[in-house]
Write a structure and sequence with these properties.
The complex is a heterodimer of chains A (about 350) and B (about 350). Chain A is mainly alpha-helical. Chain A is built from 14 helices and two strands; from the N terminus they run H-H-H-H-H-E-E-H-H-H-H-H-H-H-H-H. Chain A starts with 5 loop residues before the first helix and ends with a helix. Chain B has helices spanning about 15-45, 80-90, 120-125, 140-150, 165-175, 180-200, 225-235, 250-255, 275-280, 290-295, 310-320, 325-330, 345-360; strands spanning about 55-60, 65-70, 75, 95, 130-135, 155-160, 205-210, 235-240, 260-265, 295-300. In chain B, the strands form three sheets. Chain B has a four-stranded parallel β-sheet, sandwiched between helices. Chain B has a four-stranded parallel β-sheet with strand order 8-7-9-10. Chain B has a two-stranded antiparallel ribbon with strand order 1-2. Classes of the chains: A mainly alpha (about 350), B alpha/beta (about 350).
Chain lengths: ~350, ~350
């Protein structure tokens, strides 16, 4: 086992960033509206020389209005989900944990459905209501999951699962009450959907805000990564080594929940990424959380951008739900890596 | 305060100091990327050349305020019923693209497609550089219209809940597409056909029917759907009264309510009516229905599911099959009325299709 050095972490992250960049460029090129490399180069040239009028309107609309925001959102959602997944897997010490295991997505979905029933045509209401739903679930599960004033992993897991199934039952009940067009929005939302327009016209401001929240939450989780490694060997051992286990658990719980709530409220519940990507990164680069958190974030971004590109192109012009694509492409990759590791 | 790392970081080559530094580096990278993206956006043309055209502002049927060019030359439809309406107005040559579901009239299949109604490719729509995109709440998602409007593309969303609403919607859309006169003519003609049906059925009691949207689980229509309204025009009424659009109902309830007729959708050519009836006669629940026993099963033209001009043809078909005695007499026959009392469902369907194609001309 090679020692983990800063150089190695940075090197692998740089490598993954390179892969992400290539995937983004490929994603930018592919789609129902054809764009060649020459188009991109000539556009850059026209922008640089100030001759913007020569660029076709459709080109601007497709590249800057549709594809770039979608890629940026994909990066953000993928990074958030798989960072949150890595966090929950350590917090619950359970390899089956994913960002949705503690009922965050059910809470967000319930919020979204209530907003569709109460205010069906309000722009931004779904995102806001989904985030409120996620935050309330996080708070409720946090207080239910404590034992003797401390977060207890098995209790937390049980509380989360019970909350998730309870909320799902309410969702099923409410779904029979909504009529046609709302039901359609919700169905897509539950599958995960990157095509919904952002709630404001200032797309860059919106993305910037989301990135800011991501950086704060992921950064907070990263500060605990050394402690997480020790907690994974056992809570008592970590305590004896001087880790403030309760504080670490609290930070990871809040950070991972915020990341999940963020992703779920902008794109709906995209499955599998939060479960699979951290495991794949563990198989590839080891289980050390100082390595795992950044690689999982970049890997999640790659996974979603790739899945969304496939979703957009496989049946073009019809689009597939990105959530279906992540499961379809993710499961075989995961099985392959798992079998290879067993040999 | 965070605990000092010295106690336990000795065994690792990377301590907390490093993770903090790395976090800062990532923050810097994101900040730089964000600034770069900001600059790129500032370079984007704020005034697209297309916006210099003369626009009028209208409120669509979902309450969105939208700008639509005075002269509409390229239309993209996002639903089969809208495609049918565009053709019925004689604007088929202005239709730039439609959905993969559009099959009526047959010419619609040959147009470029922009995807399925619920999952269209937004960029494929943009690539068609349409003057006007037509959407409907009956099948499209509101997110699609919102995203297109955000890009500065004119989208008109229709929201028909009744047969009358559908006619009004056709008139409004015809007006937007610069086909006011064709719209008036089409609406008048459709209204005349509806009135002719209504004149024959006005004094008759409504027939209680079960409209089967899906057989297993049993899903039927709610009272606020345009299908329910179309049934009323055809002299029928759903036995189920529900506020939801597509309620799932229990077989027991249907057996208790004993509808006089069972209505299925689908074209006659696709399945054999007798086989269908025999199959239902063996199914538990269904065989307890008097309507099944008496063979009171009607297979309705698929047009009933679409709020489009073809819906009127489907209404005529249902009215004929539910009230054959009123329609076969020919006492108050209209010019397009078949005089033959032996007319079967198959003939009626073909005949209506032909009439519809005639309307499209």
């Amino acid at each position: 086992m090679r020692p983990l050095t800063p150089q190695r972490i940075l090197g692998i992250c740089a490598l993954l960033c390179g892969v992400l960049f290539v995937v983004c460029v490929v994603s930018l090129r592919m789609g129902a509206y054809p764009i060649s490399v020459r188009d991109i180069v000539s556009t850059l040239f026209n922008v640089a020389t100030g001759r913007r009028e020569e660029i076709p309107v459709e080109f601007w609309q497709v590249v800057f209005g549709l594809r770039l925001p979608r890629i940026a959102l994909g990066i953000l959602v993928g990074a958030s989900l798989s960072t949150a997944g890595a966090g929950f897997q350590a917090l619950l010490r359970n390899p089956l944990a994913d960002p949705y295991v503690l009922g965050v997505s059910s809470g967000a979905a319930l919020g979204a459905i209530i907003s569709l029933i109460v205010a069906p045509h309000t722009v931004g209401a779904i995102q806001l209501a989904a985030f409120v739903g996620a935050a309330s679930t996080i708070t409720a599960v946090y207080f239910l999951g404590r034992r003797g004033g401390q977060l207890d992993s098995p209790t937390l897991l049980l509380a989360g699962i019970v909350a998730a199934s309870f909320l799902s039952a309410i969702i099923m009940f409410l779904l029979t009450m909504v009529t046609g067009s709302e039901l359609r929005s919700i169905a897509f939302w539950l599958m995960g959907d990157l095509t919904a327009p952002p709630p404001t016209t200032n797309v860059l401001g919106w993305l910037g805000f989301l990135f800011f929240v991501f950086i704060v939450a992921a950064g907070a989780m990263y500060t605990t990564s050394s402690d997480l490694n020790l907690i994974l060997t056992g809570e008592q051992e970590a305590k004896h080594l001087g880790v403030n286990v309760n504080r670490v658990k609290f930070v990871v719980y809040i950070a991972a929940s915020v990341l999940t709530g963020l992703a779920v409220s902008v794109s709906g519940a995209i499955g599998y990424v939060g479960l699979l990507v951290p495991h794949v990164m563990r198989m590839l680069f080891g289980t050390d959380y100082r390595m795992l958190i950044p690689t999982a974030a970049i890997g999640g971004a790659i996974a979603i951008v790739l899945a969304d590109t496939l979703a957009r192109t496989v049946m073009a012009p019809t689009e597939l739900p990105v959530g279906a694509m992540t499961a379809l492409a993710g499961a075989p990759v995961f099985i392959y890596l798992m079998r290879r590791r067993m040999r | 305060m965070w605990r000092p790392a010295s106690l336990y970081s000795r065994g690792f080559f990377v301590g907390r100091k490093f993770t903090r530094a790395l976090g800062q580096v990532f923050c810097m990278i994101y900040l730089l990327a964000f600034c770069g993206a900001m600059q790129a956006a500032a370079a984007a043309p704020h005034q697209t050349p297309g916006l210099k055209r003369a626009m009028k502002f209208v409120t669509d049927e979902t309450g969105r305020r939208v700008a639509i060019p005075f002269s509409v030359q390229r239309i993209v439809t996002l639903a089969p019923d809208l495609t049918e309406t565009v053709y019925a107005l004689g604007l088929g040559d202005k239709l730039a693209a439609d959905t993969t579901f559009c099959d009526t009239p047959p010419a619609a299949k040959l147009k470029p497609h922009i995807g399925a109604p619920q999952t269209p490719s937004l960029e494929a729509i943009v690539a068609m550089h349409p003057d006007l995109v037509l959407a409907t709440t009956s099948i499209n998602r509101p997110e699609t219209a919102d995203a297109l409007l955000r890009l500065g593309i004119s989208v008109y969303t229709s929201d028909p809940h009744t047969v009358r609403g559908m006619l009004d919607s056709i008139a409004r859309m015809a007006d937007l597409m610069g086909a006011n006169e064709q719209g008036m003519a089409l609406v008048t003609q459709l209204q005349a056909r509806l009135d002719a049906v209504h004149a024959r059925l006005a004094e008759l009691p409504l027939v209680h029917v079960l409209f089967v949207v899906w057989e297993d689980p049993l899903i039927t229509i709610g009272q606020n759907t345009f299908i329910a309204d179309a049934l009323r025009w055809a002299g029928a009424e759903s036995v189920i009264v529900a506020d939801q659009n597509w309620p799932q109902v229990s077989m027991e309830e249907i057996v208790r309510l004993q509808p006089e007729y069972i209505l299925f959708t689908g074209n006659h050519s696709e399945s054999n009516g007798d086989n269908e009836l025999n199959r239902l006669r063996t199914r538990p629940g269904w065989k307890a229905l008097k309507a099944i026993e008496m063979g009171h099963v009607i297979r309705v033209d698929d047009e009933i599911t679409k709020p489009s001009p073809g819906l009127v043809g489907a209404i005529e078909q249902i009215a004929r099959e539910l009230h054959p005695d009123v329609f076969s007499s020919g006492a108050r026959g209209e010019s397009f009325e078949l005089q033959d009392g032996m007319m079967t469902g198959v003939v009626a369907s073909i005949w209506q299709k032909r009439e519809r194609d005639f309307c499209a001309l």
